[in-house]
Amino acid sequence: MNRQLVFFLFLALIVVGNLAVIDYFLIFKKENPTISPPPSPTPTIIPALAPSSTPIPSLAPTKTTTKKTSKSISYVPISGSGSIFSLKWADINGTEFYFNPDDYPSLKEAYFEANFRLFNGNGLAFVRLFDATVGIEVWGSEVQSKSQDFSSITSNKLTLRPGNHLYRVQAKSSTSDSTVFGSGRLKIISQN
């Protein structure tokens, strides 16, 4: 027991000694901060400008030319019509056509316009373009309608792949009703 008591007294003495040294440096060894005034600015001598015989250049008006661009719209008709009774995408026979965007060097945008209806008006009728060359739908071409009357609906902007591709129209419905495709066309917007 005496050993433990001696050990704790020794530790207490070390802690008290450290605190005394720290207090001494904090209280008695404080340095008085000196505040020095900011340096005074040195005067700078600026030489006076002497008159010059060199003329000052003047800005001449510049002529800007703007090129007017014009948009033109053309259509590529899609032949064929038909009806589809399917819940999954199915080809409409006779609607195949080839299209090459490279044939339109100033092509800016293209859209799919479809004239179609739902046979009984229950649910939705869907129509889209399918790129048979690469085996994938044309992005942006899907349109839908719930009307029993023929409606001409324009798709979003199409993403057409470069080169000559074989396209066809596909259709489906959301219920057990037929989608009737009457006609369609590509709307080509060119900018010159």
TrEMBL record:
It comes from the Bacteria. This is Uncharacterized protein. The lineage of its organism: Bacteria, Candidatus Shapironibacteriota.
